[in-house]
Amino acid sequence: MFYFQCDYNEGAHPRILERLAETNMVQTTGYGEDEYCAHARDLIREACQAPAADVHFLVGGTQTNTTVIASALRPHQGVVCAESGHINVHETGAVEHTGHKVLALPANEGKITAEQVAAALKGHRDDVNAEHMVQPGMVYISLPTELGTLYSLAELTAISNVCRQWGVPLFVDGARLGYGLMSARADVTLPDLARLADVFYIGGTKQGALFGEAVVITADALKRDFRYAIKQHGGMLAKGRLLGIQFETLFTDNLYFDLAAHADRLAQRIHDAFAAKGIPFYVDSPTNQQFPILTNDMRQALDRNFLSDFWLRLDDNHCCVRYCTSWATKESAVSQLVEAINAL
Amino acid sequence: MFYFQCDYNEGAHPRILERLAETNMVQTTGYGEDEYCAHARDLIREACQAPAADVHFLVGGTQTNTTVIASALRPHQGVVCAESGHINVHETGAVEHTGHKVLALPANEGKITAEQVAAALKGHRDDVNAEHMVQPGMVYISLPTELGTLYSLAELTAISNVCRQWGVPLFVDGARLGYGLMSARADVTLPDLARLADVFYIGGTKQGALFGEAVVITADALKRDFRYAIKQHGGMLAKGRLLGIQFETLFTDNLYFDLAAHADRLAQRIHDAFAAKGIPFYVDSPTNQQFPILTNDMRQALDRNFLSDFWLRLDDNHCCVRYCTSWATKESAVSQLVEAINAL
Amino acid sequence: MFYFQCDYNEGAHPRILERLAETNMVQTTGYGEDEYCAHARDLIREACQAPAADVHFLVGGTQTNTTVIASALRPHQGVVCAESGHINVHETGAVEHTGHKVLALPANEGKITAEQVAAALKGHRDDVNAEHMVQPGMVYISLPTELGTLYSLAELTAISNVCRQWGVPLFVDGARLGYGLMSARADVTLPDLARLADVFYIGGTKQGALFGEAVVITADALKRDFRYAIKQHGGMLAKGRLLGIQFETLFTDNLYFDLAAHADRLAQRIHDAFAAKGIPFYVDSPTNQQFPILTNDMRQALDRNFLSDFWLRLDDNHCCVRYCTSWATKESAVSQLVEAINAL
Amino acid sequence: MFYFQCDYNEGAHPRILERLAETNMVQTTGYGEDEYCAHARDLIREACQAPAADVHFLVGGTQTNTTVIASALRPHQGVVCAESGHINVHETGAVEHTGHKVLALPANEGKITAEQVAAALKGHRDDVNAEHMVQPGMVYISLPTELGTLYSLAELTAISNVCRQWGVPLFVDGARLGYGLMSARADVTLPDLARLADVFYIGGTKQGALFGEAVVITADALKRDFRYAIKQHGGMLAKGRLLGIQFETLFTDNLYFDLAAHADRLAQRIHDAFAAKGIPFYVDSPTNQQFPILTNDMRQALDRNFLSDFWLRLDDNHCCVRYCTSWATKESAVSQLVEAINAL
């Protein structure tokens, strides 16, 4: 059985395990104040062309989203987000648990537009009863989205401009950022992102690390006391070096990007196989997640050897499933899946 | 320079790294529902002689404390705790962040007594204006305490009895549990703890793991929906297997206990060296943390080669410092420290 | 200028002011433990035919909604609600501020159906990843709704049945309850409501009192420690007697119901005047709020002497406005408004 | 039986009831945006000699404290306070419910000193592990304190200076402010307070109003979006005019101050009667609360006709009780109490 249902089925890229073993008995101070973290921060700042950015390492995505959002908002503020956004649907209300409403906007293929954001921000400011409503205090988007889709540079720039016009910070969830940046269709670079977002994170968990997310804060207003927020949210790893070592490795010799490009290329092979059979897609994703619409028979046939993730039922005979590739996906596994698709 | 200032200066015990490497490319489902976690749970239930206990794995101590406490309390309830308790002083108000007051009691060598707990619980119930005050809804103690001291079986039993009399669950923070259980002066066993506490955790971070804490819930009332709480607090590791593999290793061949005994024995050597010089202690700790009271000259002399943790200043010429040993502390490092103490 | 834009433009019914003056210098204990509150509770239990119900008095609607919901839910739970529900749109995220997501369902004329509720509750329970999502822990409806519409006895019974089937309490926001119960089209009585809801409140602020809402808790599970919740949410009025005296007065000699009937009758006159002119309505409300769709000219003409509440713009030339009546609305004011409508 | 156990046993000063009756049928807009509120704000700004201050009206003390504190703090911050402070002991953890720790300092007769505050603020800033602890983000004192004692102008100035030195706002709880300002021993004036505090409130509930507290914000940083905070905490009264009318009346013709002076004078009579009998006091209060230490026999004798508030037991034969006077206390009632004291 081959697992294609998510991008965190394995451990870490071997170079990471090697580095953890090599450094295992070196004694360091805790809580991310060691030299590995310092070096990893430098590498990330360099890759972002953001020498003044603050870089912090957290363990997982929900923790990261919650910490960033709760640290930025005042109590009466909420975070604008696509209704399909991860914080709105799959984090057990972690944002609300810190006291803030998620202000969900209708999404198109997982994305929201600058026009929608502008309407939400302007609409609130113009309302005579604004204080009876939650004030939009941050805008959250995912890149790529939960459906694998991408914001173009033009779209991202437009959203960023609206946010700056209204003085509301833009936060980009990059749990799968590498897969987005390395897509054949991507025109956003890491420096673009660092320039256009006020805070974002570079996902490690789904992209070669055992775990870990690197938060990059470019807006000065969001930098203050962020380590308090990390500690308060239970995200300050005692052996913070584990995060430093992993990101140091990922940002050495282009590893992070190479691994992402590998996954995107394999996802494209799967995409092309489905497309060649005339099988439609729920959404047109150019990244490591593919969402074909299968008949019950097709799904049953493929599930025999290739585990996919049930996404949603469309009608009695059709459902959408998700196939994920990752840094760990083997070319041979994809070849076998492609054969199986061809044989449908 | 040798580090004695805390017990998380290194990575993990080599057997853990080996197991992580061996299992690295095995594909599993995420979020702790894999077979490694299942096996680790069984091993822990067995070690606790608690076949009906729920076992959950979290990443760090603050996260674990907050998740357990917030999951157990109703909004108007608080948690009773020694004023020196970790949740009261060193977690950036994480418990309060979830809405609950820490009801701190004066501590003696880091400990509170059954009498104090009874007075707090009974006092609240008897107060005619009770509803104007926070209701005690849980009792939290640390074993060993933040000062390395231990509750005897008699003391623990007495506290447990008071809690059960008043219907308030007892939560034991076991961030350094092994060091407590393996102390030469300990008379509490893991099955005792599982019998007397309603929920407790077995610390991994400070005792041989890269990271990880195993929560053991024995009280049925606290079991329901605990996985929601983990997810909401950002503690559900995507690659939950990493926790399962680590605890599986620690609870195989007595490793967890052997490592703790090693650290306790080395701490005793340090203790005896200070005592032989007539150097007093801030607190009489039988576990892996030692708190001698040093003159400024002594401290300066020792700090040259042996990093300790400044604890508190007692007067112009004296302060208390902390020396920690751990599973990773080398016999030879302790021998050199002992020599340096002898030479004071 | 006549005010029709809301139902809290005046003070209180004169009998309430008289009773406040009469009792002014009587000395009582505070916090709702006086004899006026005790008597008012008895009158309300009697009117509800719910002798075992707990009755508590709070000051305002947002406070009441938040206190009831936060007291009932565990941290990982949210409250199911129509997307137009007051808690979802007009309480500055007070529910989220206490840590809980509002799980909004699409509404039809302000209402949700038993089928929608069942789908939400069942859907969550059936989801294999349920713990990644907020668990529905309460269902909230408004009677009448924010658009003045009513749940029939059949509809309310169906929702109640679904809630009981899934073990989720039903909370009915009765900020304008009297206007709902006394509508010519109502078939739900106060005892029906007490029987079908687990907790609800009887609004005073908009129905003759200076302020005040009476929470009626019929489900035993929700009764425990509710006074702690009131105090914690800042809702325990020091001079609680003020609430007791007001509800005592409202529930003596049928005053509460007579005042509501008066407002409903006047609203119907306004409704009929618009209907006679062929002016359409945004929603078909049988209670004290009417939502005609006016052209810009019509609106301008009426606004000269009759203040209405702008509701929403429908197109360049049409908008929906709200006319409210209340216990305080004068027959003569309505007559003049009707004349003005006739003259459009 | 005469009630002396608190200062909220009656309704409101008759002039307030009269004004409520006179204005009852005037139609106004809601939520504190009416002309009565506007006028009351002007009167308060004038009395404070603070023309740029923002003034908001809330219903009760716990609500006011929570709203002010939660609005001012970031999530990782707490509020410094005397351990006997109202927010620390008698508000059911309302501050913690909004996510913030109360950082309690040992109190002397209900007061804390500038030195203590400076040590707390400096100590935190100097700590190398500061981010593991709650950051002091506000200082809260009560004037008069919960024990009736007063801060002198010198003491208040010193605390204010420390707060400004460290950039931490000073919040003064004035639930009984009038009784403090009018004490024979007071040297702080309302303009002093407005100059030295960043935010404070003028209590109405215990000083002649039915209910109501007037928050005065002088620091610009605390003004922004405060109405959102009021609404979110359930403190925005629909008929806000009720608060405006009450404070307008209290701040007309010196009523607020005259009523407070009346209560203070009567309290002094009670004080002098106890002192003349050689009965000691738990604390030396120059305001409307008196705390004599009575033998069991004395207490029993007085309790026959004069209700006092049990404060705390000192030994088997002695306890401290509280006698309160208020704007409503009758000279004749005090005369009878004095006679009874003389007869002990």
Notes on the protein architecture:
- The structure is a homotetramer of 344-residue chains.
- In chain A, helix 1 (14-22) packs across helix 11 (241-250), helix 2 (35-48) runs parallel beside helix 11 (241-250) and helix 12 packs parallel to helix 14.
- Chain A has 344 residues and is an alpha/beta fold.
- The first copy, chain A, has 2 domains: 2-7 and 255-342, Aspartate Aminotransferase, domain 1 (Alpha-Beta Complex); 14-250, Type I PLP-dependent aspartate aminotransferase-like (Major domain) (Aspartate Aminotransferase, domain 2, 3-Layer(aba) Sandwich), CATH 3.40.640.
- The mean pLDDT of chain A is 97.
- Chain A has helices at 14-22, 35-48, 61-72, 86-89, 94-97, 114-126, 153-166, 177-181, 190-196, 226-232, 241-250, 255-276, 296-303, 331-342, and strands at residues 2-3, 54-58, 77-82, 102-105, 135-142, 170-173, 199-203, 213-217, 289-290, 293-295, 306-307, 309-315, 318-324.
- The longest helix of chain A has 22 residues, at 255-276.
- In chain A, the strands form 3 sheets. Chain A has a 7-stranded mixed beta sheet with strand order 2-8-7-6-5-3-4, with helices on both faces. In chain A, strands 9, 10, 12 and 13 form a 4-stranded antiparallel beta sheet that branches. The first copy, chain A, has a two-stranded parallel sheet with strand order 1-11.
- The radius of gyration of chain A is 20 Å and the shape is globular.
- Chains in contact: A-B, A-C, A-D, B-C, B-D, C-D.
- Chains C and D meet through strand 1, helix 1, helix 3 and helix 10 of C and strand 1, helix 1, helix 3 and helix 10 of D.
